[in-house]
Design brief:
single chain; mainly alpha; 59% helix; 0% strand
């Protein structure tokens, strides 16, 4: 049976009197109390006594656990400006494009992916995830649809700057976030270009590699990334993501 609270136990009345004001207004430590301080002290004491009574003699002072920030949320907030800058540079949503421009753009993306995906394979966990997310086949398919020959596809220039994005696993994770996240923005590009008279309907697989499974694939990637990020400094992952936008901007402008 639960015992009633004893005011003399723990921080009971004796404990408060030892440091509180005496009837004369003078504390036992020699501090001079004024009426305002005395009222505040009495209110605090009463609150503590009630808490002790209701809680069986204990007042919890354990810190409240704060959930760590999601790495995906952090990456999104830290790369919004870079994402907007790259989107504006591509101009696929704001201005009319052409077969020639689109084919050149996809050729540059192919030159990036050839280097980046090969380097990503140096990390077993990332290599495994890449197996179902590689977009090399999509790029080659779209370029053939646009009339680019196999010889032209095999001779695209390679993006040497992509090597820096996989200098370590943390940077590679941040870079992976950028490329996989582009499938979400790719939905907007796909809808915008699907009615373009110059573009065959089947020439949009790079920006829409998963079709109706885009949401499902993104959620799966998010879960995987959150798990992998636990082993690395968030700042390094963010640095890898931001560096990816810089490399892509320079490369695609060339």
């Amino acid at each position: 049976m639960r015992k009633r609270w004893d005011a003399t136990r723990g921080l009971g009345i004796r404990g408060f009197v030892a440091c509180g004001p005496s009837l004369s207004g003078q504390s036992h430590s020699g501090f001079k109390w004024n009426p305002t301080l005395r009222r505040k002290f009495n209110m605090i004491a009463l609150t503590c006594f009630r808490a002790l009574h209701d809680g069986g003699g204990c007042v919890s002072v354990q810190p409240v656990a704060i959930a760590p920030t999601s790495i995906v949320a952090l990456l999104r907030s830290q790369t919004q400006d870079a994402h907007s800058a790259l989107e504006g540079q591509l101009g696929l949503l704001e201005q009319p494009a052409s077969t020639e421009y689109y084919a050149q753009l996809l050729s540059r993306f192919l030159g990036f992916h050839l280097v980046w995906e090969e380097d990503l394979k140096a990390f077993p966990e990332l290599a495994c995830e890449l197996e179902m997310r590689s977009r090399l086949r999509n790029l080659r398919h779209d370029l053939r649809t646009l009339g680019v020959t196999d010889a032209g596809i095999s001779s695209v220039p390679l993006c040497g700057g992509a090597h820096s994005l996989t200098a370590n696993e943390a940077r590679a994770l941040g870079s992976f976030y950028v490329l996989e996240g582009s499938t979400l923005g790719g939905q907007l590009i796909t809808r915008h270009l699907s009615s373009a008279h110059w573009l065959p309907a089947e020439g949009l697989s790079y920006f829409n590699p998963y079709g109706s499974r885009t949401g499902e694939m993104w959620r799966s990637f998010r879960r995987w990334l959150e798990s992998q990020a636990q082993h690395h400094a968030a700042s390094d992952i963010v640095a890898g993501a931001r560096a990816t936008f810089v490399v892509l901007q320079k490369w695609l402008a060339g």
